[in-house]
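Kindly inspect this today.
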Amino acid sequence: MRALNRRIVLPQGLSAIAIGEAMFGDIIARARADHTHKTNPREASAQDYEAMLRASL
């Protein structure tokens, strides 16, 4: 995936587009409030979202 992202010139992680840990609370709250949150095959907890965001930095 990283090679593909480089080839099509996508940013390499959230930090490359100025998304940092200070924003996680707001991002998680908005994700959990979005109506599509409930349609995921497995409901994600706030901790799940935080782990995904940290892995994406």
Observations:
- The chain has one domain: 13-56.
- The mean pLDDT is 93.
- DSSP finds three helices and no strands in the chain.
- The CA atoms of residues 36 and 43 lie 10 Å apart.
